[in-house]
Amino acid sequence: MSTNPSTLHLRELEAFLVLAEELHFGRAGERLYVSQSRVSQLLRSLEGRIGAPLVERTSRRVGLTPLGASFLSSLRPAYEALRATVDEARAAARNAGGVLRIGFQGTVDDHLARAIARFEERHPECATEVVELALSDPFGPVRRKEVDCAVVLLPVAEDDLVLGPVFSRQPQTLALSARHPLAGRESVGAEELAGLRLIGVHDSAPAYWRLAQAPRETPSGLPIPPGPQVNTLQEALSLAAADRGALLLCRSTAAYHAHRASLAYVPVEGLPDSLLGLVLRRGAGPSPAQAFARALAETAPGEEPA
User: Fold this and answer.
1) Confidence of residue 183 (pLDDT cuts 50, 70, 90)
2) What's the CATH number of domain 96-169+275-299, 3.40.50.300, 3.40.630.30, 3.40.190.10, 1.10.10.410?
3) Which end of the chain has fewer CB atoms surrounding its CB within 10 Å, N or C?
4) Where in this chain does the record put each HTH lysR-type domain (predicted)?
5) pLDDT in tens, 191-232
6) In angstroms, rounded to a whole number, what is the distance separating the alpha carbons of residues 213 and 247?
7) Distance (Å) of CA 36 to CA 9, 202, 240
8) Full-model pTM
9) C-alpha dihedral over 226, 229, 235, 240, to 10 degrees?
């Protein structure tokens, strides 16, 4: 049976978008809850409709073709607009509750998963969606109302946002190439960061927040050379694996990506612990986001902002 290029299948587009983020068929399948072969099948079908390859596959890596990269830049905003339209229709159909969209950075850890489960038990009329945020834009999706609230790395000092529950205090971990001389160490001291280039975040994020994630000096004042800047966590991990710099992560995010054999994760001693917090738009009335904040406060051990 020939592929009809005029027919759009959203599942194919979704598979391409996830694969473009992960650049790995297995991990894309995990996120889509399908097999690796099903991801490959969906991609081949989409490429058949378009008439040219979107992805380059080798035994070692997956990458976008120039056409694939161009298609991605056009597809993503259109897909987000379509998803927003579906969300609005879903909310109208339910007549109450609507959709709660929760943004997050890094991984959905146990605290967050328990809070979502508690919220859903209390509010079965409200659909819950979890949306991964770009590393370089922790607060923008909340401001633009793309999500209703967001779990982000602290600090947060935005006048138009409210900081809700603070939780998940964890030591920081250094992600670096498995070939790096420090890769085999049980830990590194904060002063040793002066000998590394720390991967940072593009300047769409506030300066104070970027410096907290990639400090420019050690606790004693030694300068830390800046490394390349990134927009996404996947970009940062790929650069670290290529030995282009090192990356500071919270422990749970490091554990989630421990399957990457090209990277090593080493605890850092002497730095402030990482903390997560829930941010909401200031001035909003009673909402599903506030109900979720209560569920999160009940299920996660409370912390005072550092």
Assistant:
1) very high
2) 3.40.190.10
3) N
4) 8-65
5) 999 999 999 998 778 999 999 999 999 999 999 999 999 988
6) 9
7) 18, 32, 25
8) 0.65
9) -10
Question: What are the tokens at 117?
Answer: 């489960």
The pLDDT tens digits of the residues spanning 3-16 come to: 455 556 788 999 99
Tokens of residue 145, six digits: 């109302």
Question: What are the sequence ranges of the domains in the chain?
Answer: 10-75, 96-169+275-299, 172-272
Calculate ∠ Cα 120-121-125, nearest 5°. Answer: 60
Would you list the DSSP string of the chain?
A: ----TT---HHHHHHHHHHHHH--HHHHHHHHTS-HHHHHHHHHHHHHHHTS-SEEE-SS-EEE-HHHHHHHHHHHHHHHHHHHHHHHHHHHHHSSS-EEEEEESS---HHHHHHHHHHHHH-TTSEEEEEEPPTT-SSHHHHTTSSSEEEEESP---TTEEEEEEEEEE-EEEEEETTSTTTT-S-EEGGGGGGS-EEEE-TTS-HHHHHHHS-SB-TT--B--EEEEESSHHHHHHHHHTTS-BEEEEHHHHHHTTT-TTEEEEEEESSPPEEEEEEEETT--S-HHHHHHHHHHHHS------
CATH code for the domain defined by 10-75 = 1.10.10.10
Residue position matching structure tokens 């051990």? 301
Instruction: Give dist(CA 8, CA 174) in Å, integer.
Output: 43
Alpha carbon distance 99, 63 (integer Å): 34
